């Protein structure tokens, strides 16, 4: 458990809580506050146990709230990206929509989703392009712009990076799978 709080590992949030004897505060394992000395930490399985022992909730990580306090901000930013993926999006635009600084938004995105906002929107665009390649007869150029890419060269470069093949090879492989499946 100590290793998990040192890593600020979010996957353990809700499974246990850390209480600090010297401050009388309890936190989530993922809390980003300054780490206490190991000998001052007690672990509890439930919030009620922490409160019964006389600890109060941390104001930074807010362990009494079921989800991470920044989840609404992340949801606001991701919905903006999903709804505007076909447009040219600047980090500043997403940050303004979310009500935070670009630096904070990018850092929070990386912490919560393990990708930057740019990578997130690129994933959306690549997934849309892959869907269109598999389910329509549109040209790669039409799909490039419909998916939200601003240039064909960037589209081909990003598609290859994410899918390990060109858009036309991807379409051929999907057509081959459908043909083989129909034969079975």
Strand order in the sheet with the most strands: 3-1-2-4
Helix content: 40-55%
Sheet/helix structural class: alpha+beta
- From the N-terminal CA to the C-terminal CA, the straight-line distance is 51 Å
CATH topology of the largest domain: Arc Repressor Mutant, subunit A
Count of alpha and pi helical runs: 9
Number of domains: 3
CATH architecture of the largest domain: Orthogonal Bundle
Provide the CATH top-level class of the largest domain: Mainly Alpha
Q: Provide the gyration radius in Å.
A: 23 Å
The coarse silhouette is elongated
Structure write-up:
With 184 residues, the chain is of the alpha+beta class. The chain has 9 helices and 4 strands, in the order αβββαβααααααα. The chain has helices at residues 2-7, 47-52, 71-83, 91-98, 102-113, 117-135, 140-146, 152-163, 167-183, and strands spanning 17-20, 25-27, 41-44, 56-57. Strands 3-1-2-4 form a 4-stranded mixed beta sheet. Residues 75-173 form the HTH araC/xylS-type domain.
Quick synopsis:
By secondary structure, the protein is an alpha+beta fold. The chain is about 55% helix and about 5% strand.
Looking at this protein, list some descriptive labels.
184 residues; alpha+beta; DNA Methylphosphotriester Repair Domain; Arc Repressor Mutant, subunit A; four-stranded mixed sheet; 4 strands; 7% strand; elongated; Methylphosphotriester-DNA--protein-cysteine methyltransferase family protein; Me-P-triester_DNA_alkyl-Trfase
SSE inventory with pairings:
Layout: H1 2-7, E1 17-20, E2 25-27, E3 41-44, H2 47-52, E4 56-57, H3 71-83, H4 91-98, H5 102-113, H6 117-135, H7 140-146, H8 152-163, H9 167-183
Parallel strand pairs: 2-4
Antiparallel strand pairs: 1-2, 1-3
Keywords: Activator, DNA-binding, Methyltransferase, Transcription, Transcription regulation, Transferase
Cofactor: Zn(2+)
InterPro entries: Ada-like_dom_sf (IPR035451), Ada_DNA_repair_Zn-bd (IPR004026), Homeodomain-like_sf (IPR009057), HTH_AraC (IPR018060), Me-P-triester_DNA_alkyl-Trfase (IPR016220)
